Amino acid sequence: MLRSRIIACLMLTVALLIGRTGVALANQAINFGLEPVGDSGVSGTATVTAADGQDSVATLSVDLQGLVPGQSYQVHLHAGTCAQPSASTGFLGNVTADPRGSGALTTTSVRFSAAGASTDLTLALLADGDHIIEVHSQELVACGAIPAATAPRGAVQLPAAGGIPPALAAGVLGVLGLAVLWGGLLLRRSTSGDSSA
C-alpha cells in the first residue's frame, strides 16, 4: 500500500513538472474578410489559427474569388490599415487563379523584404489588431484587416509584469509535493515505531 502511494505521488509530481500553468489561447481561430479595392471584384476570406497560444506557430489560410483565371497574385502582410498601410511588407506567398477565378494560399511563415529571411507566423505577430493582408496583381486588388486576438471566454490574462515562469512554478510545486510526501512517510514511520515499543 505504501509503495502504491509513493508511485501515485511520483506520477503526480511528474505531471506537475510536465504540465503548464497560465492561459493559452488554445485552438483559437480568427476569421476575417478581404474586400475588393476599387472595382477589382476580388474578395475573399482568411483564417488565422494557432493551437497553443500567442507564441506558437500560426497558420494563415486565404481563399479568394473574382480573380482573373490563370493570373498570379501576391499576398502580403503589412502593418497599419487598408487605408494607410505601412511601407514595409512581408511576403506570404503567391496564388494562381484557377479557371473559375478562385485561388487559395495556406502558409505558416512570412518573408520580410528587408531581411529576406523567413519568419514563423504567430498570433502575437498577426493578430495584434495592427496588421492587414493585401492581395496584388500589378495593382492592389483586395485588402483585409486582421482583428486582434482575444482570450477565451472566462480566461484571465495576467499583466506581463514579471513573476515566476510557468515551468519554474510547476517545478517548485512538484518539489513541495515530494517534501510533503516524504515528511508524511517519516512521520508515519516514527509514529508506528513508537506504538510498537
Number of helices: 3
Share of helix among residues?
25-40%
The main pleated sheet reads as:
10 strands, antiparallel
User: Any idea what the CATH superfamily of the domain at 26-146 is called?
Assistant: Superoxide dismutase, copper/zinc binding domain
CATH architectural grouping of the domain at 26-146: Sandwich
State the end-to-end distance: 23 Å
Radius of gyration from CA coordinates:
26 Å
In short:
The protein has 197 residues and is of the alpha+beta class. 26% of the residues lie in helices and 35% in strands.
Q: What does this molecule look like?
A:
There is one protein chain. By secondary structure, this protein is of the alpha+beta class. It has a domain at 26-146: Superoxide dismutase, copper/zinc binding domain (Immunoglobulin-like). The protein is 26% helix and 35% strand. The protein has a 10-stranded antiparallel beta sheet with strand order 6-3-2-1-10-9-4-5-7-8. Strand 2 (43-52) and strand 3 (58-65) form a beta hairpin. Helix 1 runs antiparallel to helix 3. The longest helix has 31 residues, at 166-196. The two termini are 23 Å apart. Mean pLDDT is 77; it is low at 10-25 and 152-162.
Give structural attributes.
Immunoglobulin-like; 10-stranded antiparallel β-sheet; 3 helices; single chain; 26% helix; alpha+beta; 197 residues; 10 strands
Please render the helix and strand layout as text:
Elements: H1 2-18, E1 26-36, E2 43-52, E3 58-65, E4 72-79, E5 90-96, E6 103-107, E7 109-112, E8 118-120, H2 123-126, E9 131-136, E10 140-146, H3 166-196
Antiparallel strand pairs: 1-2, 1-10, 2-3, 3-6, 4-5, 4-9, 5-7, 7-8, 9-10
Helix pairs in contact: 1-3
